[in-house]
Amino acid sequence: MPTLTAVDFTAPDAAREFASSLRETGFGVLKNHPIDKALVSRIYETWENWFKTGDKTGFDFSRDTQDGFFPASISEKAQGYDVKDIKEYFHFYPWGRIPEDLRADVEAYYAGANKLAATLLSWVEANTPADIAKNYRVPLSSMIADSQKTLLRILHYPPMTGSEEPGAVRAAAHTDINLLTILPAANEPGLQVQAKDGSWIDVPCEFGTLVVNIGDMLQEASGHYYPSTKHRVINPTGERSEKSRISMPLFLHPRPDVVLSDRYTADSYLKERLRELGVL
Ligand SMILES: O=C(O)CCC(=O)C(=O)O
Ligand SMILES: [Fe+2]
C-alpha cells in the first residue's frame, strides 16, 4: 500500500524529496514550513462561524467574476458525476468581495501562501529533467507572479444530517485545473488521493502540515512528467459525522497570457475546462 510521508521543509534535501513525492503521487506534504499556524486556525474558526451564522447578504457568487459565496444548493458537481458535492464555499480574490472583518487575516494568508508557492515552484523546476524543463516557456515561479487569477477557496463541509442525496460525498473524485494547489491540513480528516494502482491513500491530516498537489496546467506544461492526480473527500462516520470540516485550498493560476504548451495558454486551457464543466 503506497503512503505519503511529510517532508521537512528545512531539511537539506527537502526540494528533491518534495519533487519526487509530487512526481510519484501528484501530492507532496510538508512539515516545518513557514505558514503561520495560528493564522490558519483563526481563519478556520472565524469562517466556520460565518458559514453557520454569518450574514450572506451581498455575497452571492457572481457567474461573471466567480467571487463570493457558493451555497450548497448550487455547489459544483465533479466531472462525470450527477450528484452535487456536500459542501458550500467562498471564493476570495484580492480584488473581490469579502466580509470586511474577515479580510485582514485572509489577505495575510493569501500573501504568505503565494510567496511559499513561488519557492515550491522553483523546487519543482529545479528537479525537472533538462529535456522536459526546456519546454517551460518562462520559469514556473514567474508564471504566477502578479496573477489576478489565483483563487483562495474557503470550504465548509457541514455536519452530516442523514438526509443527504444517495451517493453524495463531501467532494467527489476530481483533479484540479490550475498549476499547483496549496492546502493546509483541514480541521478534520477525509482527504484521499488515488495512487497509480487505483487504491485510495489517506493524505496526512495532522494540523500544521501543508499539502501541495499538481494541477492539470502543470501536468500539461511538464508534458505529463508531473501527474495531476485524482483526489476526493470522503464522508465522515460515527461521532465525526456531527462535525463541520473546514479547508482552504489556494489554486495557483498563471497569468492568462502565459504559454503552457504548444497547444495552450493558461487562458485557453482554463476556458476549455470551464466550458466542459458547464460553468462558462
Ligand atoms: O477539502 C479538501 O481537503 C480538498 C478540496 C479540494 O480538493 C478542492 O476543492 O479542489
Ligand atoms: Fe481538489
From TrEMBL:
One of its GO terms (biological process) is ethylene biosynthetic process. InterPro entries: DIOX_N, IPNS-like_FE2OG_OXY, IPNS-like_sf, Iron_ascorbate_oxido_reductase, Oxoglu/Fe-dep_dioxygenase_dom. One of its GO terms (molecular function) is 2-oxoglutarate oxygenase/decarboxylase (ethylene-forming) activity. It is an enzyme of class 1 (oxidoreductase). It comes from Gimibacter soli. Pathway: Alkene biosynthesis; ethylene biosynthesis via 2-oxoglutarate. The keyword Iron applies. Transmembrane segments: none annotated. Keywords: Ethylene biosynthesis, Iron, Metal-binding, Oxidoreductase. Pfam families: 2OG-FeII_Oxy, DIOX_N. Residues 148-254 form the Fe2OG dioxygenase domain. Its cofactor is Fe(2+). This is 2-oxoglutarate-dependent ethylene/succinate-forming enzyme. PANTHER family: 2-OXOGLUTARATE (2OG) AND FE(II)-DEPENDENT OXYGENASE SUPERFAMILY PROTEIN-RELATED. It catalyses: 2-oxoglutarate + O2 + 2 H(+) = ethene + 3 CO2 + H2O; L-arginine + 2-oxoglutarate + O2 = guanidine + L-glutamate 5-semialdehyde + succinate + CO2. Gene3D superfamilies: B-lactam Antibiotic, Isopenicillin N Synthase, Chain (2.60.120.330). Its EC number is 1.13.12.19, 1.14.20.7. SUPFAM superfamilies: Clavaminate synthase-like (SSF51197). Belongs to the iron/ascorbate-dependent oxidoreductase family. The keyword Transferase does not apply.
